[in-house]
Amino acid sequence: MLRRFRILLFAGLAVSAVAALPARAETVGQVGVDWLGNDIKIDAVRDPKVSGVTCHVTYFDRSVIDRLKNGNWFEDPSNNSIACRQTGPISIGDIDVSREGEEVFRSGLSLIWKDLLVTRIYDKANDTLIYLAHSRQVTDGSAKMSISTVPLFGQTVKWENGRPQ
Fold first, then answer.
1. Do residues 121 and 134 make contact, with C-beta atoms less than 8 angstroms apart?
2. Cβ-defined contacts of 17-25 (< 8 Å, 24+)
3. Is the pLDDT of residue 21 over 60?
4. Which of 45, 104, 109, 121 would bridge with 130, disulfide CB 3.0–4.6 Å?
5. Keyword Signal on this protein (predicted)?
6. pLDDT per residue as tens digits for the range 59-77
7. Distance (Å, rounded) from C-alpha 82 to C-alpha 85?
């Protein structure tokens, strides 16, 4: 009985942990930019708590030749861009409506130290979702960032927990 309880508890925790993870990206485009094999990649990211919104994020993917030639083997540049649009009926789940917002997506730009993040912030005064793409580093933060907005004004939006007051 105790063994079965432990198994069920572990399975429940595993499912909860997976459900709490940020969104996964699907690579939808890749454009070569030089003869070394460096590419610009385009990923589609669906907001896990806001159905009907898809963000497209671009980032630079360095080739093996470029890494060998220039060193800095384990890191890609922080340059990125983001564009988010309504791609279906919008339904908003339990989102963080604080000024800090919440992380929607994270992808490593280096072996350990640097991540590309997408953070969602709700602008209540303008009834708009703001998506911020930026990098986070353990040291020497980067000022490279990009934003995209999805206005909710005039849209039929379903709020799972009611529109924030």
1. no
2. 22/48, 22/103, 22/104, 22/105, 22/106, 22/118, 23/47, 23/48, 23/104, 23/105, 23/118, 24/105, 25/57, 25/105, 25/107
3. no
4. 121
5. yes
6. 777 655 655 666 665 555 5
7. 10
